[in-house]
Amino acid sequence: MNLTLKIWRQKGANDKGKIVDYPVSGISPDMSFLEMLDVLNQELIEKGEAPVAFDHDCREGICGTCSLYINGRAHGPSTKITACQLHMRSFSDGDTIYIEPWRAKAFPVIKDLIVDRSSFDRIQQAGGFISVNTSGNTQDANAIPIEKENADKAFDAATCIGCGACVASCKNSSAMLFVSAKVSQFALLPQGQVEATDRVLNMVKQMDEEGFGNCTNTGACEVECPKGISLENIARMNREYLAASFKG
Question: CA 243 to CA 177: how far, in whole Å?
Fold first, then answer.
């Protein structure tokens, strides 16, 4: 396959960026999208040019670091997969592919396609944890009765990998889907009730302080989420927040 890549290049956070064209040839349809970028970078290095900086780690759709905006969609044209799971057979010979970083005030560009998503870490640190002592004296999980439906919903929420596709897809750059998933995974379980009130208040407060926008209610976040996190979690977080506000 012969392709034309239009890639966002930006030397640093304070530098002006621009789209740069790169032709690539001999790309196998069986390559992953990141492998294709590896081929490009090898060619750039051999020519003495700076390679394109992009985030990656596990390349198995688990870590959430491969945050790329491909042809106007978070993680590319396929649904419920990350960019590292996207293969070049999703494109055709002669295609032009636009590759950009996430666009959000709370995700400033570090270099090229890499953005700073530490805002998600700070939201998590604000309340995305439990204080139950799990060191050395843990109860058998089967001794704590939990309804199957609640357990399933908590597990589904916990599958969020924090990639930021929800933010990148939202017109307001809202982090509501991410935060609601992190709230829901504990709100549905008895272990998470100890600091339930503080959790939702602190995490929503931190989300607002980071500069994320409000929910648009368009559902783009759920559509583009590689793990299919449901909008039901946002409704649950809103209920948790309202109840916590009255308690406070």
Answer: 19
Render 170-203 in DSSP notation, one character per residue: STT-B-HHHHHHHHHHHHTSGGGSTTHHHHHHHH
- Percentages (nearest 5) of helix, strand, coil residues in the chain: 40, 15, 45
Separation CA 152–CA 185 (nearest Å): 10
Mean per-residue pLDDT for 78-104?
97
pLDDT tens for residues 207-235? 999 999 999 999 999 999 999 999 999 99
The CATH topology of domain 3-111 is Ubiquitin-like (UB roll) (3.10.20)
Q: Rounded to an integer, what distance in angstroms lies between the CA atom of residue 185 and that of residue 154?
A: 4
Distance, in Å, from the CA atom of 233 to the CA atom of 188, rounded to the nearest integer, reads 11
Percent of the chain exceeding pLDDT 70 equals 96
Q: Where are the domains of the chain?
A: 3-111, 118-247
